[in-house]
Every structure is written in structure tokens, then in C-alpha cells.
Amino acid sequence: MVLILLGPPGVGKGTQAVRLADELGAAHVSTGDLLRAARREGTELGQRAQKYMDAGELVPDHLILDLVKEHLRGIDPGTHVLFDGFPRTTAQATGLESVLEASSRRVDRVVLFEATDETIVQRLSGRRSCPECGAVYNVYFSAPKSEGKCDRCGAALLQRSDDAPATVRKRLEVYREQTAPLIGFYESSGAAFDRIRADRPVDEVYADFLGAVGKG
Ligand code: ADP
Ligand code: AMP
Hints:
With 216 residues, the protein is α/β, with parallel strands linked by helices. Helices cover 48% and strands 14% of the residues. The chain has helices at 13-24, 31-41, 44-55, 61-73, 90-101, 117-126, 165-179, 181-187, 202-212; strands at 2-6, 27-30, 81-84, 109-114, 127-129, 136-138, 192-197. Helix 1 packs across helix 9 (202-212), helix 2 packs across helix 3 and helix 4 runs parallel beside helix 5 (90-101). The chain is globular, with a radius of gyration of 16 Å.
């Protein structure tokens, strides 16, 4: 199964994807995580992506498509893949189709997570992320057991600089202009399409998510 988790930044896609990937033994492919890893490692891609990420803008499509193509090479074609934060433009969606076609695959399902801007701004202001293992916490809703420290690996948690309110506003604007058109694209694509109200507790959202992917 190739599944896309679609929705605005901060709606909870990563939280849900990690959980489903654990349960299904699926590969979780988050382009945001891959870009942040490239930045930490100081690769050429990381350096080129930096100014866009810091401004809350999208990294150019060709860089993202090369990144995804390369990453998919390391994943067995029989493995379920959960895309999180990708695709974000129509050009990325059509590029993904070509990449998948090369291994006789297609996008099987798209799940759209929806919440109000107010919910999103609050969630992002409280988000804390582990730079080592990628675990995500929230100081309001799911705080780590020991303040500022990752429950899973003990690393010091970070607040993402692009979660500052002004950058969040920019990212929401970019979502509406460049990514929301993918809703219509996928509704008429032949892939199974579901909408989930994500402004509820994580377990309730997850129950709906499992139902949408036929595992409920
Ligand atoms: P995205 O991957 O869509 O950007 P995340 O999964 O990183 O979003 O979630 C953003 C923040 O909101 C994180 O701090 C996360 O812990 C928190 N969060 C995610 N889902 C929920 C939920 N259903 N209720 C409350 N907080 C949530
Ligand atoms: P995310 O972790 O998904 O919130 O992404 C953080 C930032 O990485 C975004 O604001 C973009 O600058 C960049 N990014 C992540 N995924 C993509 C993508 N598919 N296309 C373009 N830019 C991306």
C-alpha cells in the first residue's frame, strides 16, 4: 500500500504516521524529517533547503523529487509506504506518479487530516521534537515524562524555529495556495480518499485513521 497523509502543517500527520508505521511495519517517509537530517549532516541539499525552510516556504520541487526517489531506492518495493508532508504541490504529485510507475506501484489511498487554524497554531507553539529519534511531543497535550528530554532515547528536545508564530502563519498560507489544490487532484485520481477531523484527542483520530485504511 502507498498511502499519503495530506493536511496542513501541525495537524498531526507525523504523530499518526509514526503510530501506523509501527503497527504495520511500514516505511514512514517524511520529507520534512529527511530535509532536517540533511541540514544536520550539512549536505549540499541541506544547505540549499535551509533558506526556504527558515522562511516557511516550499523547497523547490526538483530537489524534493530527487530526495524522494533516492530514499525510495532503499525501501523494498513490497513494503507499505506512508508519505507524510509529501507531495505538497501538483508537480510533486505527478512526479510521484512517474516514480511509482517505474516499480508498478501507484498511490492507493489518501487521508486528509483537517483542523482549524486556531488548533494548528496552538499545537505548533507547544511542539517539541527529538533531533535524534524523531519522536514528537507537545507541552500542552503530550509532554515528555521528564521535561525537555526524549522518553525514547533521552536526547534533549528542541523547539523547531519554523514553529514560531510568524513562520507558522506563512506555512499555513503556503499550504492553502500550493498544497490544498491536491485535495481536488486526489479526489478525482482513483485513489481511495478519506477526510478525518483531526481536532480531537490522538487516540480518537487514530481510531478513525485505522478505519480509513481498512485496519479498524
Ligand atoms: P504534522 O506532522 O502534521 O506537522 P505533528 O504530528 O508534528 O504534525 O503534530 C503537531 C503537534 O501537535 C505535536 O506537538 C503533536 O504532539 C501535537 N498533536 C498531534 N496530534 C494531536 C492531537 N490529536 N491532539 C493534540 N495534540 C496533537
Ligand atoms: P514539515 O516537517 O513537513 O512541516 O516540513 C518543514 C519544512 O520543510 C517545510 O516548511 C518546507 O520548507 C520543507 N518541506 C518539507 N516537505 C516538503 C515538500 N514535500 N515540498 C517542499 N518543501 C518541503
